[in-house]
Amino acid sequence: KRRNEEKTAEEEAEKAKQAFEAAAEKYNKHIAEEPEIKEKEKLKIQYEGKKAAYEGLEEAKNDLAEAKSNLKEAENKVKEAKSLCEELGNKVITLHNEFKALDEEHSKMLAGYLAGITGSLAEKLNDGEPCPVCGSTVHPHKAVKADDNVTEDEVKEKKRLVDAKYAELNDASNNKTSADETLRQEITGSSEINQVVAAAEAVLKSKKESLIEGIDSLETLNIAIKELGEEIENYDKIKKNLEKKKKDTEDEATKKSANIEPAKKESADAEKDFDIARKAVRNALEKNGFTSESE
Questions:
Q1: Own/partner long-range contacts of 134-142 (Cβ < 8 Å, ≥24 apart)
Q2: CB–CB of 183/85 below 8 Å?
């Protein structure tokens, strides 16, 4: 029985030792990854230090997007202003031609009207009588009255149309001048905004040059930081568990190993006691005439 207890103690000690060795192997295998984890900790710190740069990148992107939007709006205004200038320019040309035609018609009508007046006066002139216009009593070249008499009212109406057309032409010319000035201002404004776009593009380019290769946005950076953090945290958690497992199995192996010697001692003592008892039995048998234990 004592020998069985000794054997059991040895088996348990061996089993505990193997459990400890297995736990130690797992632990050592795990901590072999620690240099790599240390590098990832450094990388995580580096990434976190780049957050401000990436936040500046987002701001630069927004600034460029806003500048481009403003430029597009300015270019549309320039396009509209050019269209208006072209429309007003054509209108001025049309009105000028219409005014010129009316003015010529008026001049002809006025000439016809005046010719009609002088012709009427000439019809009334008699030789020897003074001309009511020049006072001459000799009239070698009398004016001839036109066949199509033009009335004063007709001349005045035509003059009214000429003046109205001129006023319309003048308004259109003023509008064209105003539109030209607006176009000039819109072009200047568009040019200035284009410079803002160029500057925003330069800033964004500069920001991008300071970024981490393969990470082109703040969102991607935050994901990378989170993944690194989770990987480091998971490593530490597993390390802690393996460390505890290693210690627990080591303690158990130590405890089981400590049980072997007492078991051996008990076994040895029991065997010694058994030998003493056996010897006493033999001596008693011999005294009583028995030569062996079997008798």
A1: none
A2: yes
